[in-house]
Design brief:
Blueprint lengths: L4 H11 L3 H15 L12 H16 L4 H17 L7 H16 L5 H29 L1
Helix pairs in contact: 1-6, 2-3, 2-5, 4-6, 5-6
Length: 140
């Protein structure tokens, strides 16, 4: 699978106007399908929802700037270590992200779009996971 920046950006442009609803759907899906991760989050998710949406927007905007994208992802991974996140949580987040984007993109969500987002999430989870693992090891 390869990342198609045109598909990533065009599909994100479809869901972007619905930011708060999209981020809310993401957390609803995540907590419904993976309730074990709920304890990692504050009771009121509003701030986290806004942070998620901002981070996703930054990643899509920086998609063509590999160096910046890698730096942002490493920073996110290291920060998530402090929240108690584990690499084992990443598949649940990826599933929730794809389900959320598919739901909000509607008929524009194609197999090619899903494959591209899946490939992008692979890069996201690998890069964040390496930084998260390093941060956990450093804290020991």
């Amino acid at each position: 699978m390869t990342i198609n920046p045109v598909l990533i950006k065009s599909s994100f442009a479809l869901v972007e106007p619905h930011g708060v609803a999209v981020a809310g759907y993401f957390y609803d899906y995540l907590f419904e399908h993976h309730p074990a991760v709920r304890d990692l989050f504050a009771e009121h998710i509003d701030e986290q929802r806004d942070l998620l949406w901002a981070a996703l927007g930054t990643l899509v905007a920086r998609l063509d700037d590999t160096e910046t994208l890698q730096r942002v992802l490493r920073d996110l991974g290291a920060r998530h270590a402090g929240y108690g996140a584990l690499v084992d949580h990443f598949p649940a987040v990826g599933e929730s992200l794809l389900a959320t984007l598919a739901h909000h993109a509607g008929d524009a969500w194609t197999e090619e779009t899903e494959a591209s987002w899946t490939a992008l999430y692979g890069v996201i989870s690998d890069t964040m996971g390496q930084a998260l693992t390093s941060a956990h090891q450093y804290r020991r």
